[in-house]
Task: structure prediction
Amino acid sequence: MDRRSRRVVLLAHCILNQNAVVEPLARRPGALEGIARLCLEAGVGLLQLPCPELIERGAGRAPDERSGYDTPAQRALCRRLLEPVRVQVAAYREAGYEIVGLIGIGHSPSCGVHTTHERGGAIPGRGVFMEALLALLPELEGRVLEVPRRYAEDPEVTRRFEEELRALCPERGGQHGA
Ligand code: SF4
Result:
């Protein structure tokens, strides 16, 4: 019996590994457990994206803004990192799997999908890495969420985001197009 759900969600790296985050911004010692738990309960597989900032600047890097990462070298790095992701997504699609969506990180200069970081604060816009990813996989537009800055710290923000996540990743048997 094939137990695979054939449903996969793409996650920003630090959702499952807060060790990658710029030091003062980590919200948990390891993973953001609430997000991982909801995805597991929904029966979706977790495809963890690489962390472009860790790879470029290391674990002890200082915070920076979108403009600091919006360079030809960083864009080239993002394209290189995303090639294996593109290949994996193509393999899943070829086999009839559903890519249920993409979860980024609000306010991030790299992984924001609706908000990014510039001029000392959050602004509407997309991080450099997610911009490159969605240029590669434009069919994911409309199925993207971002973890709000106050997730796991403010109970109301956490509750609202988890509701959005349940809608993106309904429990097995729910309907989403691929
Ligand atoms: S670059 Fe992306 S994955 Fe890495 S710590 Fe920042 S938000 Fe998380």
